[in-house]
Amino acid sequence: MSMHSALPSKASVVIIGAGPTGLTAANLLGLAGIETLVIEHNADICDFPRAISIDDEGLRIFQAMGLLEEILAHVRLNVQAQYISRGHFLARVAPEEFRNGFPLISTFHQPTLERILLKGLERFSCVKVYFQHTLEAFKQDEQGVHISVHTPTGLQASLECAYLLASDGGKSSVRRILGIPMYPPSR
Q1: Number of domains comprising the chain
Q2: Domain residues for 37?
Q3: Taking the CA of residue 15 as centre, how many other CA atoms within 13 Å lie in the half-sphere pointing to its CB?
Q4: Tens digit of pLDDT at every position of the chain (187 positions)
Q5: How far apart are CA 123 and CA 116, in angstroms?
Q6: Same domain, 17 and 98
């Protein structure tokens, strides 16, 4: 799935990763009218969840984006959580307080949330999403960030931006390129 065909050579912001963080950032940038490209190596939204909970501040962000009502239809509000590590009970969290008008812990199905966030981007002509595009390299200088992307056709594309936002999760290509280890190490 590619939402747009030709990759432009410039953007104000390039976001690497179309998960919840990248798509949320893209919606916020779209609201501000900032030209944004989202680069995602997968062909579509991932079908399996990697995250399951959100706090009150996250729900406030969705409210600011104008997507809260649609998202709330798929969120289980004010849930209790138990934390267990290697079979040992660590803690139980049962929040009763609603700060900022929302419960402290709610759960969601990540693929459903990502689809809502992706659809939300259709409101903004300044935001474009490119699936099956992979970050290969980048470098920064006084002029901005210069990015090399592998396209689905097998070609390399180059683009420039003022800001590069790494939202590409646990196996981050941005972190790998910068030589930053994951801590704690993931499996």
Answers
A1: 2
A2: 1-47+116-187
A3: 26
A4: 445 568 999 999 999 999 999 999 999 999 999 999 999 999 999 887 788 888 899 999 999 999 999 999 999 888 887 888 899 999 888 777 677 788 888 889 999 999 999 999 999 999 999 999 999 999 999 999 999 999 999 999 999 999 999 998 888 888 888 888 877 766 5
A5: 12
A6: no
pTM for the model stands at: 0.88
Tell me the CA end-to-end span of the chain in Å, nearest whole number: 28
What are the two backbone dihedrals, phi and then psi, of residue 57, each rounded to the nearest 5 degrees? -65, -40
Distance (Å, rounded) from C-alpha 75 to C-alpha 69?
A: 10
